[in-house]
Specification:
single chain, 9 helices, about 210 residues, mainly alpha, disordered C terminus
Length: about 210
Amino acid sequence: MEGTKPVNKKLAAALSGGAVLVLALSGCSGSSGADDKKNDALDTWAKQVCDGVQPQAKKIEAANAAIQKETSDNSSPADVQKTDAQAFQDMSDAYKAIGAAVSKAGAPDVDNGQKKQQDAVKELNGLGASYATLKQQVDKLTTKDQARFADGLKDIATQLDKLSKSGSDALKNLEEGDVGQAMAKQPSCKSASATASAPASASPANG
């Protein structure tokens, strides 16, 4: 009856890559050498985004932890299904909420700010939709046949791995330069970054 465990470990490992995406929106922790006076508007924008990201980063981290816990417990397929489905739903909601926060904040006052913002919102909403699809797939798995359940979970783990590696180019573009420096100064972004960095400690810290 151990068939589910190694597969769910794969799921947890792939999931930890999702935290990198939150880090991308949490602002780089590099030093700010920009002219602070001209950045007041940018600081206001960054605060609005960071305040919106912080609770969602915590939600993603909690979803991550729930799946990690299922890998260490000798859980039944039904328990794994319930936990994973809820985690994917929470992550879907969180990414959509981050997208809404970026959308509501408007375009940052930088070159191509509007395009960068729109691309990031599109990317975040796409991630939300992808996790929603994974949730539906988990819901459809049969828990009565351990081997079939493990196979189904393996397929989801593969998709999740691709999703975590699909990158967050639009987010990185949004937070480069002055935007990243403004976000790095926000306490809520520092908090979100610390929350997300636990399973994604290999993330670069110098944006």
